[in-house]
RNA sequence: GGGAGCAUAGCUCAGCUGGUUCAGAGCAUCUGCCUUACAAGCAGAGGGUCACAGGUUCGAAUCCUGUUGCUCCCACCA
């Protein structure tokens, strides 16, 4: 622990009472340099344990990170996702909550195993030549060496995770929890073993879940192949298929029962070309009479629908493929050839023998493995499943009833649909990297589920089986471990100890508050976490799920490594600063919307950092004169900004509550850039006389510094580094007084009249500036200003200062020969030294008059409409009445001006 | 094939349960400024029949129906 606050870089730190030296401006660089600042503060936050969370009596605020693949490197999606989490966690921390953000990585069995296999191959080692133990040793070495780079990268972004809690889904304890879960669910009857048609990845040699298969549109050849009807000399039945090699596994031909073309053939047999196997011609309504020839070949071992047909008609199933996608002995021909080679070969042979009658081109979709990008093969194999139908019900209910909120809520529909049609979950994977399935087989193939070999033996012994036993070779699906993540990161023993005995951490942090993740994994991760949460803790794992969009390039393509269209996130941080990149990403990305990313967004963020930096340079350059009187303009400015700040803060808070982070950021941005910098600072800025800044009075200085501090606080969740740096540059801080734990400002009540009154002044200033620019007058040229009637004069000094007005004079009579305009409902006049163009003025005023008269008639018409008055709400009618009286007075004013010309 | 969602300035998006000082913001564009915090800036300005066609209503960007276009999810006719 070091309580020493790092020294600000590049500038000397003056206390506010110190006199300004002429060259001080020179000491502060003109632009903000993020790099050194970022390293310095991140290290300091770490050293002093600001990210650390331990249960105490504060309200917890918890986020568990969606664990990135341990093999992963930071990409733009992670940047967006983790920036959002950091914004939420930092604000919660400032609100005085015990903020806990748990980081970690996922072992990602298929992805990681593929990487390790590839690396071993480079070293000339073939996985097949290794034992399981040897392979795993290599894998762990790899993991220790290269894994988790991504977490280091997150630090560069400013992620304020509690790194002491870093978890890995294959940590010993977390793995044990996976086994506990498997055993428990098996005991409860949810987990079963069965032979099913699964998505087989012939490259990774494993089953993958439906979610890991992506479909690609393709143009395929549809081959028409004729089969001879058995016992005839020249009667044929023609089928159509895109996969001619699978005819070797045919066990039937199926036609529609009402298809007259084929009724007489049903029940007869046809001969599979080349091999001459006789298969029965059956009838089933599943067949589409219109497609192809209306006759379908049935290959139960290699097609999901055929498999179902096979079950229904009790057909034999012939598996003609080896696990690696080559033809098996059962195919009889082409044995050992790859499936795609075989396809070419068999087409050639069929053509030669005259079996191909036609070839069409059709569009269809083909499933590819998300992991290895090879064509998925439907394959029959024994696998482990979780029965989902009953099990998932609480998770459906939780979302539908709003126990768990999806943000944006448009995803509820999709979620509901999926959960209502949920399929059993195939959880076994034919891999080594992962939690090995705790099932054991005896010599006759019976199995028991048990945590250890000894327990398994004991189980078998009870059944009277005493021979040698072996453990299932497979591991569980990665999601079968990550669905426990919100539980096991806090209490890995929760599953075996049971709901009643969960530890203090889990009790304190669970349910977590918000989960920030991508919609793609809503089903296979989010939904399953909810299921596990209710099953094992009896409560939801989180209250809100913030779904981010996909980061795309300018052309709307998904950013991917293969396209090479993803900018290097660390390069962006290098170029624009972490704060700049964070702001850039968040400015235009409401929840659930895709983010078409462009570097210019980060540029805007960088510019914003710079703006804040320069505001600081201004304030820091002021010399305080404690004997100076506070000017009226400064006093008014302080009143206004205080009101404005509170008004905007309430809005910002509201945006946060609704998870509208880009809106919260935009409101913050405008408050800082427009209200604070462009208006407030300009108003209180001391005058320059003879090239030297006059000193500022103590009251105004103190107020400005305090405002600056408030500004920094609301900036901090978005821009942690610059806000921490300036917090320390603005004043000397002692001990662990830091921005990261500063108190989030309270939104106090404010006087709305001050704000509207200042709006009048702003309007006046803008109009006068426009007047100057139209007259091609220099801003330096001083003008006079007259005001008619009995105006609100609180902000006249403000107008005077910002519009370069020598004096604002209140007059009874409208002055002649003057440019006149309205701001609010006040009439202003700029007396003209020369002659004004009367025609031009008249035209301008008449246009204004016409608009207001038109507006008035429309309001009057509405108010005269009986049905409007009868049907509209009273407040609507009141506001219409107010509009009418406002318009009337405006019209009167313009008319007076016109009369004056 | 089934379902969901979207369509508002050049771009990215606000616009809550219908009410013309709501047609808005940021960026980009244009004009004028190197004004001692900031040219990564300052001061101004222009830009949209709210996809199209109907309908409900005193009143529609906002509700309903249809059309067109786009996106996503689910299924997969071999």
Can you put this structure into words, describing what you see?
- There is one protein chain.
- This protein is an alpha/beta fold and 901 residues long.
- The chain has 29 helices and 33 strands.
- Strands 7, 8, 9, 10, 11, 12 and 13 form a seven-stranded mixed sheet that branches. A four-stranded antiparallel sheet has the order 6-5-14-16.
- About 2% of the residues have low confidence.
- The structure holds one RNA strand of 78 nucleotides.
List keywords for this structure.
901 residues; alpha/beta; seven-stranded mixed beta sheet; four-stranded antiparallel beta sheet; elongated; RNA-binding
Task: Give a brief rundown of this model.
The chain is of the alpha/beta class.
Largest sheet: 7 strands, mixed
Beta strand %: 15-25%
Per DSSP, the total helix count is: 29
Overall pLDDT score: 89
Structural class: alpha/beta
- Roughly how much helix do the residues carry, as a percent range? 40-55%
Q: What would you report as the Rg, rounded to the nearest angstrom?
A: 37 Å
The tally of strands reads 33
Low-confidence stretches: 10-26
Shape label: elongated
Secondary structure elements and their pairing?
Elements: H1 24-27, H2 34-47, E1 60-64, H3 76-94, E2 98-102, E3 104-105, H4 109-122, H5 132-146, H6 149-157, E4 167-168, H7 172-187, E5 191-201, E6 206-208, E7 213-229, E8 236-241, E9 252-255, E10 269-271, E11 278-283, E12 295-298, H8 304-313, H9 339-352, E13 356-369, E14 377-386, H10 393-400, E15 405-407, H11 411-420, E16 425-426, E17 428-429, E18 439-441, E19 447-449, H12 453-462, E20 470-471, E21 475-476, H13 479-482, H14 485-488, H15 494-497, H16 504-509, E22 512-517, H17 522-536, E23 542-547, E24 551-552, H18 569-576, H19 578-587, E25 595-596, H20 599-620, E26 624-625, H21 632-657, H22 661-684, E27 688-689, E28 692-693, E29 696-697, H23 698-715, H24 720-730, H25 752-774, E30 783-788, H26 796-802, E31 805-811, E32 818-823, E33 826-831, H27 838-864, H28 866-871, H29 874-900
Parallel strand pairs: 1-2, 3-4, 9-11, 15-23, 22-23, 24-25, 26-29, 30-31
Antiparallel strand pairs: 5-6, 5-14, 7-8, 7-10, 7-13, 9-12, 10-11, 14-16, 17-21, 18-19, 18-20, 27-28, 30-33, 32-33
Helix pairs in contact: 2-24, 10-11, 10-17, 18-19, 19-20, 20-22, 21-22, 21-23, 21-25, 21-26, 22-23, 23-24, 25-26, 27-29
The structure holds one RNA strand of 78 nucleotides.
């Amino acid at each position: 622990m070091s309580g020493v606050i790092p020294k600000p870089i590049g500038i000397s730190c003056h206390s506010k009472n110190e006199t300004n030296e002429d060259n001080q401006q020179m000491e502060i660089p003109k632009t903000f340099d993020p790099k050194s600042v970022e390293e310095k503060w991140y290290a300091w936050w770490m050293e002093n344990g600001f990210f650390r969370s331990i249960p105490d009596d504060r309200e917890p605020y918890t986020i568990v990170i969606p664990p990135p693949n341990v093999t992963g490197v930071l990409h733009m999606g992670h940047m967006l996702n983790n920036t959002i989490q950091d914004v939420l966690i930092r604000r919660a921390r400032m609100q005085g909550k015990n903020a806990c953000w748990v980081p970690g990585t996922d072992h990602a069995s298929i992805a990681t195993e593929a990487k390790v296999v590839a690396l071993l191959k480079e070293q000339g080692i073939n996985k097949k030549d290794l034992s399981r133990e040897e392979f795993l040793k290599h894998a762990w070495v790899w993991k220790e060496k290269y894994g988790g780079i991504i977490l280091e990268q997150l630090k560069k972004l400013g992620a304020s995770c509690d790194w002491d809690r870093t978890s890995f889904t294959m940590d010993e304890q977390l793995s044990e929890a996976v086994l506990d879960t498997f055993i428990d669910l098996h005991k409860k009857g949810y987990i079963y073993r069965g032979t099913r048609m699964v998505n087989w990845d012939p490259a990774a040699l494993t089953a993958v879940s439906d979610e890991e298969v992506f479909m690609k549109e393709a143009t395929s050849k549809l081959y028409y192949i004729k089969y001879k009807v058995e016992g005839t000399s020249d009667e044929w039945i023609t089928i159509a298929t895109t996969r001619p090699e699978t005819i070797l596994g045919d066990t039937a031909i199926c036609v529609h029962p009402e298809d007259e073309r084929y009724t007489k053939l049903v029940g007869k047999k046809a001969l599979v070309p080349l091999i001459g196997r006789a298969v029965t011609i059956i009838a089933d309504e599943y067949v589409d009479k219109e497609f192809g020839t209306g006759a379908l070949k049935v290959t139960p071992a290699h097609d999901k629908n055929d498999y179902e047909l096979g079950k229904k008609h009790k057909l034999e199933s012939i598996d003609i493929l080896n696990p690696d996608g080559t033809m098996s002995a059962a195919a009889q021909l082409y044995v050992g050839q790859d499936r795609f080679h075989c396809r070419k070969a068999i087409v050639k042979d069929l053509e030669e023998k005259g079996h191909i009658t036609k070839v069409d081109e059709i569009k269809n979709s083909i499933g590819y493995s998300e992991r290895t990008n090879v064509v998925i093969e439907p394959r029959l194999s024994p696998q482990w499943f979780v029965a989902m139908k009953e099990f998932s019900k609480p998770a459906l209910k939780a979302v539908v009833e709003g126990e768990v909120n999806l943000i944006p809520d448009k995803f509820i529909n999709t979620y509901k649909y999926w959960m209502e049609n949920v399929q059993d979950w195939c959880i076994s994977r034919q891999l080594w990297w992962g939690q090995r399935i705790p099932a054991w087989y005896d010599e006759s193939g019976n199995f028991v589920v048990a945590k250890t070999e000894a327990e398994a033996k004991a189980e078998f012994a009870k059944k009277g089986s005493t021979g040698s036993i072996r453990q299932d070779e497979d591991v569980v699906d990665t999601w079968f471990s990550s669905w426990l993540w919100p539980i096991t990161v806090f209490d890995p023993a929760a599953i075996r100890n049971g709901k009643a005995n969960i530890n203090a951490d889990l009790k304190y942090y669970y349910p977590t508050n918000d989960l920030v993740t991508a919609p793609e994994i809503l089903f296979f991760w989010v939904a399953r976490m909810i299921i596990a949460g209710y099953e094992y803790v009896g409560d939801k794992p989180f209250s809100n799920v913030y779904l981010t969009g996909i980061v795309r390039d300018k052309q709307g393509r998904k950013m991917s490594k293969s396209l090479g269209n993803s900018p290097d996130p660390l390069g962006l941080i290098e170029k624009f600063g972490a704060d700049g990149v964070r702001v850039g990403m968040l400015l235009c990305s409401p929840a659930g919307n895709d983010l078409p990313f462009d570097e210019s967004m980060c540029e805007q963020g960088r510019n914003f950092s710079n703006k804040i930096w320069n505001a600081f340079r201004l304030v820091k350059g002021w010399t305080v004169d404690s004997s100076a009187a506070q000017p009226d303009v400064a006093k008014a400015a302080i009143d206004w900004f205080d009101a404005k700040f509170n008004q905007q803060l309430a809005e910002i808070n509201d945006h946060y509550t609704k998870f509208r982070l880009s809106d919260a950021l935009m409101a913050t941005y405008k408050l800082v850039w427009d209200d604070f910098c462009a208006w407030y600072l300009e108003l209180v800025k001391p005058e320059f006389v003879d090239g030297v800044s006059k000193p500022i009075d103590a009251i105004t200085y103190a107020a400005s510094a305090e405002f600056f501090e408030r500004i920094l606080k609301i900036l901090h969740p978005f821009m942690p580094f610059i806000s921490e740096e300036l917090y320390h540059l603005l004043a000397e801080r002692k001990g662990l007084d830091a921005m990261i734990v500063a108190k989030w400002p309270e939104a106090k009540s404010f006087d709305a009249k001050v704000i509207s009154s200042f709006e009048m002044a702003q309007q006046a200033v803008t109009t006068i500036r426009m007047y100057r620019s139209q007259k091609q007058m220099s801003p330096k040229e001083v003008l006079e200003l007259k005001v008619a009637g009995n105006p609100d004069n609180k902000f006249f000094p403000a107008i005077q200062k910002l519009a370069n007005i020598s004096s604002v004079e209140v007059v009874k009579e409208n002055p002649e020969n003057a440019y006149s305009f309205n701001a609010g409902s006040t009439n202003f006049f700029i007396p003209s030294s020369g002659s004004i163009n009367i025609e031009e003025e008249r035209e301008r005023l008449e246009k204004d008059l016409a608009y207001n008269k038109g507006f008035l008639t429309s309001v009057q018409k509405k108010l005269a409409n009986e049905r409007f008055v009868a049907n509209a709400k009273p407040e609507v009618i009141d506001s219409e009445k107010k509009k009418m009286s406002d318009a009337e007075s405006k019209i009167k004013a313009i008319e007076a001006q016109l009369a004056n010309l």
